[in-house]
């Protein structure tokens, strides 16, 4: 455990909403609009925090506990992830399994909070979230297993930044496949296009947004901020795994990492601007395809 691990975690906690702001600006550019300010997400969170929360008489303590507990799980995920050459605050063999566990815990808390409302509408969204996550989580685990096999480490501290330029020369096809697989899982886990449209409120298409409809005020702010942190965590994981950053804390490594995150935000914005949302019955096929990429990558790595 190193105190320097607090630096990337604090930076991520501060910059996560800005990552969403970049995606929104890229989408606005493709749509020919001026778009909202880069810091609009911060303004929205501050506005929601100042509002009051209304609780239905059908809800229990589970509904009130879900937002802060879900955010806490996302913050723990930040502490497990090394970023920009800085070590993780929490690091141990097999910690990538702990990362998957806390991300799953965050989702589980959001799902049970939605179910606690007794609303069939939110139950529909929770059912979709649980079904798609059951397909996405094994693919994410398999992708991380491929990277662990290539890097020769079983800890995120060795895996992130452990894939070097020499590894790309030797196993480029496998690494491209697993990178594509993890990008697909990033979009699915964060309810982005083509799996879900975060800007819509159509009953037949909503997944994540429908689960938080009954939350308001500070609770809604916690869930929205937690979702931004989850997007940052998976984006930082993808960037850190495949961007060779010099080991050890340094300005160069930090700038390279931030540049990689900026590129990833632009890529997500381009994807959401150029393709349409899939029909719900096509989403499992999308996730199975991502899993097939990961399986092929593992076969290439182990041959």
Radius of gyration: 19 Å
First-residue to last-residue Cα separation: 36 Å
Number of domains: 1
Strand content range:
under 5%
* Unreliable parts: none
Helical stretch count? 11
Summarize model confidence as the mean pLDDT: 89
Assembly classification = single chain
- In total, the number of strands is 0
The helix/strand class is mainly alpha
Order of helices and strands: HHHHHHHHHHH
How does the major sheet shape up? none
What overall geometry do the principal axes of the alpha carbons give? globular
Helix content: 55-70%
Task: Write a structural description.
This protein has 303 residues and is mainly alpha-helical. It has one domain. It contains eleven helices and no strands. The chain is globular and about 60 Å long.
Task: Identify the notable features of this structure and list them briefly.
single chain, 303 residues, mainly alpha, 11 helices, 0% strand
Summed up:
The chain has helices at 6-31, 40-49, 61-80, 95-115, 120-151, 156-159, 165-189, 208-211, 218-242, 251-274, 283-302.
Layout of strands and helices, then pairs:
Elements: H1 6-31, H2 40-49, H3 61-80, H4 95-115, H5 120-151, H6 156-159, H7 165-189, H8 208-211, H9 218-242, H10 251-274, H11 283-302
Helix pairs in contact: 1-9, 1-10, 2-9, 3-4, 3-9, 4-5, 5-7, 5-11, 7-9, 7-11, 9-10
């Amino acid at each position: 455990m190193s105190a320097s691990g607090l630096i990337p975690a604090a930076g991520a906690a501060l910059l996560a909403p800005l990552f969403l702001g970049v995606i929104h600006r890229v989408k606005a550019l493709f749509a020919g609009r001026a778009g909202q300010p880069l810091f609009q997400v911060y303004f929205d969170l501050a506005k929601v925090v100042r509002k009051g929360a209304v609780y239905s008489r059908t809800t229990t303590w589970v509904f009130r506990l879900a937002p802060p507990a879900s955010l806490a799980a996302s913050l723990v995920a930040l502490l497990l992830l090394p970023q920009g050459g800085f070590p993780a605050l929490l690091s141990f063999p097999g910690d990538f399994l702990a990362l998957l566990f806390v991300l799953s815990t965050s989702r589980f808390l959001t799902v049970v909070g939605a179910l606690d409302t007794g609303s069939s509408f939110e139950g529909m969204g929770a059912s979709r979230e649980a079904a798609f996550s059951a397909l996405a989580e094994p693919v994410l685990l398999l992708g991380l297993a491929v990277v662990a096999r290539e890097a020769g480490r079983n800890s995120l501290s060795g895996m992130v930044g452990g894939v070097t330029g020499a590894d790309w020369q030797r196993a480029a096809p496998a690494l491209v496949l697993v990178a594509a697989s993890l990008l697909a899982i990033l979009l699915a886990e964060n309810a982005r296009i083509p799996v879900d449209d975060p800007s819509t409120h159509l009953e037949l298409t909503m997944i994540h947004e429908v689960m938080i409809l009954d939350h308001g005020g500070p609770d809604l702010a916690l869930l929205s901020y937690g979702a931004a942190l989850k997007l940052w965590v998976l984006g930082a994981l993808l960037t850190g795994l495949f961007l060779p950053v010099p080991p050890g804390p340094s300005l160069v490594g930090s700038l390279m990492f931030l540049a990689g995150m900026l590129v990833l935000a632009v890529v997500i914005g381009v994807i959401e601007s150029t393709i349409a949302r899939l029909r719900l019955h096509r989403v499992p096929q999308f996730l199975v395809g991502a899993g097939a990429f990961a399986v092929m990558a593992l076969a290439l790595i182990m041959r």
